[in-house]
Amino acid sequence: MHRYPKGSGLPSRIPVIEMVGIGAGGGSIARVDTLQRIQVGPDSAGSEPGPVSYGLGGTQATVTDANAVLGRLDPARFARGKVALNIEAAQQALAAQIGAPLGYSADLAALSVAEIVAENMANAARVHASEQGKHVEHYTLIAFGGAAPLQAARLARKLSINRVVIPRSAGVGSALGFLWAPIAYQAVRSFYQRLDGVNHDEVNALLAGLTEQATTIVRQAAPQGDIQVQRIVYLRYAGQGHEVPIELPDGSVQAQTVHLLQTRFAQCYRELYGRSLDNVPVEAISWSVAASTHDDLASATARWTPSNTHTAASSPHQRQVYQIEDNGFTATPLHERTALTQEQYVSGPALVVEEETTTVVYCGFSAHLSPQGHLILELGSEDFHHE
Q1: Which of 107, 138, 172, 290 is the most exposed place for a label (fewest CB within 10 A)?
Q2: Distance, CA of 83 to CA of 69 (rounded, Å)
Q3: CA distances to 30, 73, 110, 112, 321 from 99, in Å
Q4: Residues 152, 172: contact at Cβ < 8 Å?
Q5: Which stretch of DSSP H or E encloses residue 207?
Q6: Closest CA to 23 of 41, 47, 49
Q7: What pLDDT digit, counting tens, does each position of 240-252 carry?
């Protein structure tokens, strides 16, 4: 009643990608609240005026300002040199807005902001994994975007994750995903049915209509080529509030199809929740048909696979970067990602720079290129390599 006031409509349930947003981007604004705690986000300085270090009129300290002060960003390479980072202005903003209320130096204020961001991300991952019944330390962390590679290894340490992948062209990963993704359309219709009394004719007519709708729309965008169709029914035990998506087999829905759906649902339910309710009727709530062109990701990535020739590796430059283990700034190697070879392992602490982002290789991690050109960070991997 209070969440949905009159005129706001009714909540609807449709298939979506589950995402957890925590407001920890490069433009997220840092502040000290009334309880003397550092808070980061969710409000953002955006790109204009942006962080203080951009010199575009921004006055509030941000995550990018903190990373700049910590030495993690190379002013000569930032945004391909199109943005001249003003490190001194960032130091002044952090000192005044974070350091002064807490009695911190500008460097400690910057480190505190970066640590708060990492801990916010780690806590969100812990909660999400716990809700899903998963052990987050068993997974590989994938970081893409301009800012994520700066924090990925630190986040992995907090989550006890041993492997991090920084995909090739991670800084523009969303744009590449948009260009590479197949053309697709999904049509969903609510149609309640108990599996022990399915009206086969009505269900088949419904699926035929959804298939025609989805394929027609995809064909308008892709006049040539084959179209793939996937049909899904959302099932639950009677009385439950959440459904489990189960793929429908090809062909018309018949008695044997219903039996197969029962079996698939029970198996999937046991995998998710550890048991099945075999004496409870199963309900179908929604039916979905997704049409798409063939996934061309394999050929697209093949075009991006690096050749066996690399830019000749030279002695890396060094940069003063704040290291938590040393509690201060130390000379840190700066490696060009395009100059790395597949046989080369970079031991942390180090920075791996490229045109769109910078990867921070923290102490204890080592980095190397995969055959596909992705940057792999592994905890203690240099010891395994030497063995």
Answers
A1: 138
A2: 15
A3: 11, 21, 9, 10, 19
A4: no
A5: helix 200-221
A6: 41
A7: 888 899 999 999 9
